[in-house]
From TrEMBL:
EC number, as in UniProt: 1.1.1.312
SUPFAM superfamilies recorded: Glyceraldehyde-3-phosphate dehydrogenase-like, C-terminal domain, NAD(P)-binding Rossmann-fold domains
GO MF annotations, alphabetized: 4-carboxy-2-hydroxymuconate semialdehyde hemiacetal dehydrogenase activity; nucleotide binding
The protein's name in its UniProt record: 4-carboxy-2-hydroxymuconate-6-semialdehyde dehydrogenase
Keywords: Oxidoreductase
Organism of provenance: Bythopirellula polymerisocia
Domain Gfo/Idh/MocA-like oxidoreductase N-terminal residue range list: 8-121
Keyword Metal-binding listed: no
Keyword Cell division: no
Domain GFO/IDH/MocA-like oxidoreductase: 131-260
Superkingdom, taxonomy of origin: Bacteria
C-alpha cells in the first residue's frame, strides 16, 4: 500500500506528540515540516527520517505535493492555514482550539466546505482509551441504558505559580478565554461523545491567579437532549491528589439507571451496580505518548477515514456543535471575575 504523505505546519511543544504518532503509523510518511522558527524545525526533523524543512506552507505544498496537512499552530493562524490548504490537498487535521472565536470557526468550516477540503479537528480526548472503553460499556448496557448524570472534576495544579504556564505553553497567560476555550472544550466534547447532544448550558467562571488574563476555574452545568444532567467542575490552580494530572486530566462519574461507572486519575475504571459494591473493571491501555496515547489514536482514526472514505468523528462541521456549547457557556458566565474572596474576607465559621 502506498503511504499517505503529509506536511506538518507548526513545530512547537505539542508537535512532538503528533510527529511521534505519525512515525508509528506505518502507512504514513511526513515529507515536510513548516515553522517560522528554524530551531523548532530542526528539532522536529530529528524525529523524522527524510522530511524537508520549510518556513512557508505555500512553498511546502508546492514542493512536496502531500496528501494532507497537519495544522499544529495556535488558533489565530488556523483560518489562513486552512485557506492555504484549499485547492492543494484533499484533507487536513487541525489542532484545537479550532479558532480564537466562534465566528472565525464558522468561517474556517465554510472555507473548507467550499474548497472540498475534508477537515478534521484534532480533538483527542474522546480518543483516550478510558473513554472508548466507557463508551463500549454504555453501549453494552452494563450499568443500564439511560444516563442520569455525568460529572467531571479537574484539578491540574499547573496554574498557581507566578510563572504559571511559562515553561510549557506561555501563550496561556494572555488568552482572554482560557479554561473553557483551551481545556474545558475537551470535556464538553467528551460529554457529547458519552451522553449525546447538549441542549442547555450555564457557566460560572472566575480567575484565581491574577498573573493571567483569562479564567482558570469554573463550574459548567448542562442538560442533555435525553434529559440527563452534566457537571464540569474545573480548576487549573489547585492540585489533585494523584501523581500525574495530565494522564486523565481528572475524574469522571457516570450515573445510569442500573449503576455507576467511575474513572479515576490513574486511568482505573470501576463499576458499581445498584445494590452492590464498587468493583474494578479490567481493561488495558498504553501510557505511551500523551494521555493514554490518544494523539496516536486520533491520527490513526484520521488515516483510517481517509483510506476508507469514512466520516471523521470530529469533522469540523460537527465540531461546531461543541464550540457552540462553549460559546453559550461564556455568554451565560458574563465578565470573568477575579478570585472570589481573600482569606481576610472569608465567611466566619461558628
Amino acid at each position: 500500500m502506498k503511504p499517505l504523505t503529509g506536511v506538518c505546519v507548526g513545530a512547537g511543544y505539542f508537535a512532538s506528540f503528533h510527529l511521534d504518532a505519525w512515525v508509528r503509523l506505518r502507512d504514513v510518511r511526513i515529507v515536510g515540516v513548516c515553522d517560522r522558527d528554524n530551531s523548532r524545525v530542526v528539532a522536529a526533523l530529528a524525529q523524522l527520517d527524510s522530511a524537508q524543512p520549510f518556513s512557508d506552507l505555500a512553498q511546502a505544498l508546492e514542493e512536496t505535493q502531500p496528501d494532507f496537512v497537519d495544522i499544529i499552530t495556535p488558533p489565530e493562524s488556523h483560518l489562513a492555514l486552512v485557506q492555504a490548504c484549499s485547492g492543494h490537498v484533499s484533507a487536513a487535521i487541525c489542532q484545537k482550539p479550532l479558532a480564537p472565536d466562534f465566528s472565525t470557526a464558522v468561517e474556517i468550516v465554510e472555507t473548507a466546505r467550499n474548497a472540498g477540503l475534508r477537515l478534521m479537528v484534532h480533538e483527542n480526548f474522546r480518543f483516550q482509551p478510558w473513554y472508548r472503553e466507557i463508551k463500549r460499556l454504555l453501549k453494552a448496557g452494563v450499568v443500564g441504558r439511560q444516563v442520569h448524570q455525568i460529572a467531571f472534576r479537574m484539578r491540574m495544579g499547573d496554574g498557581w505559580h507566578e510563572d504559571a504556564y511559562l515553561e510549557r505553553q506561555p501563550y496561556f497567560r494572555k488568552m482572554p478565554r482560557l479554561l473553557l476555550h483551551e481545556t474545558g472544550v475537551h470535556l464538553i466534547d467528551v460529554f457529547r461523545f458519552l451522553a449525546g447532544e447538549i441542549v442547555d448550558v450555564h457557566a460560572y467562571l472566575c480567575r484565581l491567579n491574577q498573573v493571567i488574563v483569562g479564567e482558570d476555574a469554573g463550574v459548567v452545568a448542562c442538560r442533555f437532549k435525553s434529559g440527563a444532567l452534566g457537571i464540569l467542575d474545573a480548576n487549573r490552580y489547585n492540585e489533585p491528589n494523584y501523581p500525574n494530572p495530565r494522564l486523565t486530566f481528572g475524574e469522571l462519574t457516570m450515573d445510569c439507571d442500573d449503576g455507576t461507572i467511575r474513572l479515576y486519575g490513574d486511568g482505573r475504571i470501576t463499576l458499581q451496580q445498584l445494590g452492590s459494591e464498587e468493583e474494578p473493571h479490567h481493561y488495558s491501555f498504553s501510557d505511551a505518548g500523551f494521555a493514554g496515547d490518544c494523539v496516536y489514536s486520533t491520527q490513526a482514526h484520521f488515516v483510517d477515514c481517509l483510506r476508507n472514505d469514512r466520516e471523521f468523528e470530529t469533522d469540523a462541521s460537527d465540531y461546531l456543535r461543541t464550540l457552540e456549547i462553549v460559546e453559550r457557556a461564556y455568554e451565560t458566565a458574563g465578565p470573568i471575575a477575579s478570585a472570589p474572596v481573600s482569606p481576610g474576607d472569608a465567611v466566619e465559621r461558628e
